[in-house]
Amino acid sequence: MKIPNYDDVLAAAERLKGIAIRTPLLYSPALSERLDARIYLKSENLQRTGSFKFRGAFNALSQIPEIDRTRGVLAISSGNHGQGVAEAARLLGIQATIIMPADAPEVKITRTRDSGAELIFYDRAGEDRDQITKSHLQQTGAVLIHPFNNADVIAGQGTVGLEVADELSARGEVPDILLVCTGGGGLTAGLALACSERYPDLQMFSVEPDGFDDYRRSLLSGVIVSNDATTGSICDAILTPAAGEIGFSINKDRLKGGLSVSDLDALRAIRFAFEKHRMLAEPGGAVALAAILSGRLETQVGSLSGKTIVATVSGGNVDQSVLLQALQTAYEL
């Protein structure tokens, strides 16, 4: 099992230079004033394909030997990884096939197709996606690009952390707390590699939906545990059966712990991001912000006064119906 390191993240940054968008680190005045802290939002909703996933996908696909590219690539995705792989494959001239749940948000289905990928749908509750994947690989010999249990994908996601560190350094600031929207742990592991190298005292937390907090429970137990269900939350982008082995080997000694938030908290965070920053966030991409807004972070660490806190907004591929629901959800600030 290949475990990426900080040098791999730096190499990924070189591959992505001029390809991936260097997304802004936005200061949140309203939230900062309320908490007497400095709150920053890393806006990966503005990345190509609307989420951080493009980074890892391009880094992984760009390293496939030319002789193997003719076999195409295969990805399993609820939408964001699929979009990232599809767009990276389009740029590199590789055929992509994406295995996607039938209930994925329409915006993710449409944008994946727009990049030229072939889609294979499955029923989350009634079909075995691993068996579907195995069958397709046997038939085609395609190269599997796992959404999070892949060293090159993790290294690509780590470039988010490099940008956070560079931006804070330019402002003369050092982060105290980093909150990461977490599913299988690829983004979390990449950020852990990039940021723990620069900030050894950083307190880093995974953030998941209530009832799907396998990462939090895995960190507490020291071994990977799984979720009992794979459906039942609006945070579709980060509903995974269990943590990836590669990422967990990185995160278990670098993270301070894990947090979880409700679907209602995520909807309130979407509304806050839209109203205060004119930012589109999807539910799974808003849970880190939700951990601050809901008070879950304060409950975990105590007063946030005087602290510099960064939260990832990891995706913005939200269906109009969910956005409307969020905008009708009350929140207090």
Explain what you see:
By secondary structure, the protein is an alpha/beta fold. The chain has two domains: 6-51 and 152-327, Rossmann fold (3-Layer(aba) Sandwich), CATH 3.40.50; 54-148, Rossmann fold. Helix content is 44%, strand content 15%. It has helices spanning 6-16, 29-35, 53-61, 66-69, 80-92, 106-114, 129-140, 151-157, 159-170, 186-198, 214-221, 245-251, 263-277, 287-293, 296-301, 320-327, and strands at residues 25-27, 38-43, 73-76, 96-101, 118-122, 143-144, 177-181, 203-209, 257-261, 308-313. The strands form two sheets. The protein has a six-stranded mixed β-sheet with strand order 1-2-10-7-8-9, sandwiched between helices. A four-stranded parallel β-sheet has the order 5-4-3-6, sandwiched between helices. Helix 13 (263-277) packs across helix 14. The mean pLDDT is 95.
User: What would CATH call the class of the largest domain?
Assistant: Alpha Beta
In total, the number of strands is: 10
Q: How many domains comprise the coordinates?
A: 2
Overall SS class: alpha/beta
State the end-to-end distance: 46 Å
- Secondary-structure element order, N to C: HEHEHHEHEHEHEHHEHEHHEHHHEH
How would you write the strand order of the largest sheet? 1-2-10-7-8-9
Approximate shape? globular
Radius of gyration: 18 Å
Mean pLDDT: 95
CATH architecture of the largest domain: 3-Layer(aba) Sandwich
Estimated share of beta-strand residues: 5-15%
Largest sheet: 6 strands, mixed
Number of discrete helical segments: 16
CATH topology of the largest domain: Rossmann fold
